[in-house]
Write a structure and sequence with these properties.
InterPro entries: Troponin (IPR001978), Troponin_I (IPR050875), Troponin_sf (IPR038077)
Function: Troponin I is the inhibitory subunit of troponin, the thin filament regulatory complex which confers calcium-sensitivity to striated muscle actomyosin ATPase activity.
Protein name: Troponin I, fast skeletal muscle
Number of strands: 0
Pfam families: Troponin
Helix content: over 70%
Family: Belongs to the troponin I family.
Length: 182
């Protein structure tokens, strides 16, 4: 018993050690990835955005502004072109998906419902005209006659309550009640 507990503790300690080692490794990997992304970002900015050197004279400053405006316009044109291409491809994709939907069928398939079907109807549906055997399962059941209970007899004797009310209403009804009481 003591031996098993010792083994369990060792296994748990080993598992915890492995888990902490994996977490440390993951942290170092994440740090490496972040550093690599930062270096990549710096390289991209150095390549695409040269450092800005502001000239001293007003004429050179105006030339620099014109160049920047021209660059902004070209970038805006590229952005607009890519947006138009994206809209075009999105529209194309919607048209193709609509065609695919039309090819499959216009209506969604309804969820299947349970249908009560007799054995004969099921065999007819499966076999078609080959189905000859009649499987009336209810014919094989025993028929049990219902025994009359006292309550049912009383209910039958009472009959329709409206009749009883009409018979007992008025002076003749009271006379009948009086005579029945004697």
């Amino acid at each position: 018993l003591f031996h098993l507990q010792k083994k369990r503790r060792a296994a748990t300690a080993r598992r915890q050690h492995l888990k902490s080692a994996m977490l440390q490794l993951a942290v170092t990997e994440i740090e490496k990835e972040a550093a690599a992304k930062e270096v990549e970002k710096q390289n991209y900015l150095a390549e695409h955005c040269p450092p800005l050197s502001l000239p001293g004279s007003m004429q050179e400053l105006q030339e620099l502004c014109k160049k920047l405006h021209a660059k902004i316009e070209s970038v805006d044109e590229e952005r607009y072109d890519t947006e138009v291409k994206l809209q075009k491809t999105t529209k194309e994709l919607e048209d193709l998906s609509q065609k695919l939907f039309d090819l499959r069928g216009k209506f969604k398939r309804p969820p299947l419902r349970r249908v009560r079907m007799s054995a004969d109807a099921m065999l007819r549906a499966l076999l078609g005209s080959k189905h000859k055997v009649c499987m009336d399962l209810r014919a094989n059941l025993k028929q049990v006659k219902k025994e009359d209970t006292e309550k049912e007899k009383d209910l039958r004797d009472v009959g329709d309550w409206r009749k009883n009310i009409e018979e007992k209403s008025g002076m003749e009804g009271r006379k009948k009640m009086f005579e029945a009481g004697e």
